[in-house]
Specification:
mainly alpha, disordered N terminus, two-stranded antiparallel ribbon, Annexin V, domain 1, 19 helices, 3 domains
């Protein structure tokens, strides 16, 4: 959006950019607007809201300036990450090249992360808490500063201190971490726009109510299925939440342990609290519990998709045991972690 005049850059005004976007129409204008930062979008949309009674002369000045800029563009495309990395590795030694690329592409992640600033901090934290703390810290470090401070306020004191410690540690932003962060950013945006958290919350509340219902639950579920099968399925899924397992007595947990492998438990317990992990570990014989502890350390940080997969596998096993009459789950939401 800039042109050279007397060797000095001359930028189009915010009002000019607003007029240009208005001339593009809603579909194209919205796509272009996505390329601006959070703060720039606020400035531009504010200018758009004040733009009325546009004179042909003013529109012509704005549009002509844009096409002049476009015509003077060199046509040389920007360097890709691979291109720049290869050039630097041929110029510098490996470590220096990686560090410099990490610094350069930290700006790229910040650009992506800025789009999250529209999400209420408490909703974003709900998604972040499903990730390994190192990934949480890395993403928070790349959020706009004023927004990241509001995000940290959503954590309890201990977790906040741990996140700040992780943020303070130097990390090389590898291409693998870049893709992980981009994927997380995209999922957070999708979850917010789809309203997934809100839709599941209602079914979870109903599930908790049904768990405490003293009447005939089979008749109640028949009614729900007759009225709305989709809602009935959501409620049933909510009743079989992974964390329901920690409400079960040791006899039930031992029966579940007979069908669940140590590897499944190791992945599924990632992201749970210390008390939850110890409840499962202490339910096992000493030799087996030691092996589970070793597995937890060995696999290290893992993608949330692997954790979700392991938890689903365990829940499917638990459902089978419940259907077979081997176990009877306690849905009263009364933790047995003493």
């Amino acid at each position: 959006m800039a042109e050279k005049m007397d060797n000095q850059p001359k930028y189009q005004t915010v009002d000019g950019v607003a007029m240009l976007l208005l001339s593009m129409g809603e579909d194209i204008g919205s796509e272009v607007l996505k390329s601006f930062t959070h703060e720039e979008i606020k400035q531009i949309t504010h200018a758009m809201s004040k733009t009325t009674d546009i004179k042909a002369k003013d529109a012509l000045v704005s549009l002509t300036g844009f096409f002049d800029d476009f015509r003077k563009h060199s046509g040389i495309l920007g360097g890709t990450r691979n291109y720049i990395t290869n050039v630097l590795e041929k110029t510098l030694n490996g470590n220096l090249a990686r560090d410099l690329v990490s610094e350069i592409y930290g700006d790229e992640i910040r650009s992506h992360a800025e789009k999250l600033a529209w999400i209420p901090p408490d909703l974003l934290v709900n998604d972040l808490k499903k990730e390994h703390i190192n990934i949480q810290a890395l993403l928070i470090a790349h959020l706009p500063l004023d927004y990241s401070s509001r995000v940290l306020e959503q954590y309890d004191e201990q977790d906040c201190h741990e996140l700040i410690l992780q943020i303070s540690k130097t990390q090389v932003l590898t291409s693998g971490l870049m893709e992980t962060l981009k994927d997380l950013i995209d999922r957070c945006k999708i979850n917010y726009h789809s309203g997934g958290s809100a839709s599941l919350q209602g079914s979870k509340v109903v599930a908790d109510l049904i768990n405490r219902y003293s009447g005939d639950k089979s008749h109640l579920f028949e009614f729900l299925h007759d009225q709305d099968k989709e809602v009935a399925n959501l409620v049933e899924e909510a009743m079989f939440d992974f964390f329901t397992l920690f409400n079960q007595d040791l006899e039930t947990i031992n029966l579940i342990n007979d069908r669940v492998s140590l590897e499944q438990w190791a992945y599924a317990l990632k992201g749970t609290g210390k008390d939850h992990r110890l409840y499962i570990i202490n339910s096992m014989p000493q030799r087996v519990s030691m092996e589970l502890k070793e597995n937890l350390v060995r696999i290290g940080a893992v993608p949330v998709s692997q954790v979700d997969k392991a938890r689903k596998e365990i829940i499917d096993i638990v459902k089978e045991l419940q259907t077979e009459g081997v176990i009877t789950l306690n849905f009263a939401n009364e933790p047995r972690l003493t």
